Automatic annotation (TrEMBL):
GO cellular component: cytosol
HTH asnC-type domain sequence ranges: 3-64
Keyword check for Transcription regulation: yes
Alphabetized GO MF terms: sequence-specific DNA binding
This protein's name: Transcriptional regulator, AsnC family
Pfam family, one: AsnC_trans_reg
This protein's record includes keyword DNA-binding: yes
GO biological process: regulation of DNA-templated transcription; response to amino acid
Keywords, alphabetical: DNA-binding, Transcription, Transcription regulation
Lineage, broadest ranks: Bacteria, Pseudomonadati, Pseudomonadota, Betaproteobacteria, Burkholderiales
Length: 153
């Protein structure tokens, strides 16, 4: 389905504020509430909206360190990759994981309280995951842009 200008405006409004009421979204996109609600239900049913969630503060939660971690495998097999991917699903401090091309096999975004906490996590968890033979970390010195939502091209 192609998104029209109004659908895109609804999606942008919800990306900016996932708790926006139907009335406020309708007003911001120039619709009455009923047509806006119908469009919203259709956007949800068609899979454009996957979920609604709160964005939590890392600082308030005491997670001051963010690391981009490259993971390499020594042996590449489907079974090993599947085991690795299953295990990382259960590790909350791995915020995201991507299977990538290039010198690494996976790129993880990991949060920790501080450098010592991250070091312990590396030693006791990351390096013990199935297939992992090398781990390289890049520590974030400051977040310039936070996930602001997807562009609606």
């Amino acid at each position: 389905m192609d998104l029209d200008k109004t659908d895109r405006a609804i999606l942008m409004a919800l990306q900016a504020d996932g708790r926006a009421t139907n009335a406020s979204v309708a007003e911001s996109v120039g619709l009455s509430e009923t047509p806006c609600a119908r469009r919203l239900k259709r956007l949800e049913a068609d899979g454009y909206i996957e979920a609604y969630r709160a964005v939590l503060s890392r600082q308030a939660l005491g997670l001051g360190l963010m690391a981009f971690t490259q993971v390499r495998f020594g042996v590449h097999s489907r079974e090993l990759s599947d085991r690795f991917e299953r295990e990382i699903q259960a590790i909350p401090r791995i915020v995201s994981c991507h299977n990538v091309s290039g010198s690494a096999d996976y790129l993880l975004l990991v949060v920790a309280r501080d450098l010592e906490d991250y070091g312990i996590f590396m030693r006791d968890v990351l390096r013990t995951l199935p297939g992992v033979t090398a781990v390289e970390s890049m520590l974030s010195l400051g977040e310039v842009k936070r996930n602001a939502g997807l562009p609606l091209l």
